[in-house]
Write a structure and sequence with these properties.
Length: 154
């Protein structure tokens, strides 16, 4: 069982997509015993809120329902509860690492897009102040990364 946590800033745009797309793949392919997915934000601005309405609408258009997810803040306990922590950008990376207590914790953290483009530390851009095109780009990036993660499960 691999436990994966997706992390962004607010946990209402990018990381809920990681969680929701993984839950979608888990359900479609009966992967419940292989992988567990969750998401969190480094900030507490939107705790207990549903994902951003634009993210919900765009995901729905792409066949993924994320409306039931609720935001929570990343905590240092997540280092013990998850095997892999995928962040969306450098700021998330630094905020998460600042809470790491040891090398084992640090080694769990990686940029999500490194699953597609190893070691390039590419960002999933924050769409919060963007347009529909930005939300669609984010969906496609996160979807492809999740597909790759699922392909690598054993
Ligand atoms: P996320 O996007 O980190 O992908 O959830 C954001 C959500 C909220 C804010 C910024 C980014 N905000 O400033 O409230």
């Amino acid at each position: 069982m691999q436990k994966i946590l997706f992390v962004c800033l607010g946990n209402i745009c990018r990381s809920p997509l990681g969680e929701g797309i993984m839950l979608h793949f888990i359900k479609e392919n009966n992967l419940q015993n292989l992988v567990h997915a969750d998401s969190a934000g480094t900030a507490n601005y939107h705790v207990n809120e549903a994902p951003d309405h634009r993210t919900i609408a765009n995901a729905k258009k792409n066949g993924v329902d994320i409306s039931a997810l609720r935001a929570r803040q990343f905590t240092s306990a997540d280092f013990d509860n998850f095997d892999k922590i995928y962040v969306m950008d450098k700021s998330n990376y630094e905020n998460v690492l600042s809470l790491a207590k040891n090398t084992s914790h640090k080694n769990k953290v990686d940029f999500l897009l490194n699953v597609l483009h190893p070691q390039q530390n590419q960002h999933v851009p924050d769409p919060y102040y963007g347009t529909e095109t930005d939300f669609e780009l984010v969906f496609q990036l996160v979807y492809k990364a999740c597909q790759k993660i699922v392909e690598g499960l054993d």
